[in-house]
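Budget justification aside, the reviewers requested a transparent look at the raw inputs and outputs of the sequence design task funded under Objective 1. We therefore reproduce one unedited record. The lines immediately below are the structure tokens for a 119-residue chain.
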């Protein structure tokens, strides 16, 4: 499992704590040190809609005034690749799925079979 985000994001911190508390192994990929490219974003968009992946409530979206530009899907994709901080966090690649944002109830149903027991 891979967890994408930034270390300072509250939702990412919650997700990391959730997985650690449940002894679920994950690899953390920081957008600031390892940006994702357009191909990776397209693979996510094949599994989740743009409305879920693009964070229209975040500071970066507001600072760039993207709402005023009335972007089409291709332009939104280009912005996500150019500015990874526009991606709603965390993004989790799990099995063949992509899970976006932190939602403990959703996590409980999705990851319940992934708990690892450590000896």
């Amino acid at each position: 499992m891979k967890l994408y985000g930034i270390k300072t994001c509250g939702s990412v911190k919650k997700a990391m704590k959730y997985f650690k508390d449940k002894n679920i192994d994950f690899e953390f990929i920081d957008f600031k040190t390892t940006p994702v490219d357009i191909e990776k974003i397209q693979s996510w968009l094949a599994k989740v809609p743009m409305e879920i992946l693009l964070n229209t409530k975040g500071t970066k979206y507001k600072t760039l005034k993207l709402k005023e530009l009335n972007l089409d899907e291709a332009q939104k994709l280009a912005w996500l690749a150019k500015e990874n901080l526009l991606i709603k966090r965390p993004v989790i690649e799990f099995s063949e799925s992509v899970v976006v944002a932190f939602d403990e109830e959703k996590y409980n149903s999705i990851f319940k079979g992934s708990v690892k027991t450590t000896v």
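The longest strand covers residues 2-5. DSSP finds six helices and four strands in the chain. Computational costs for records of this kind are itemized in the attached budget.
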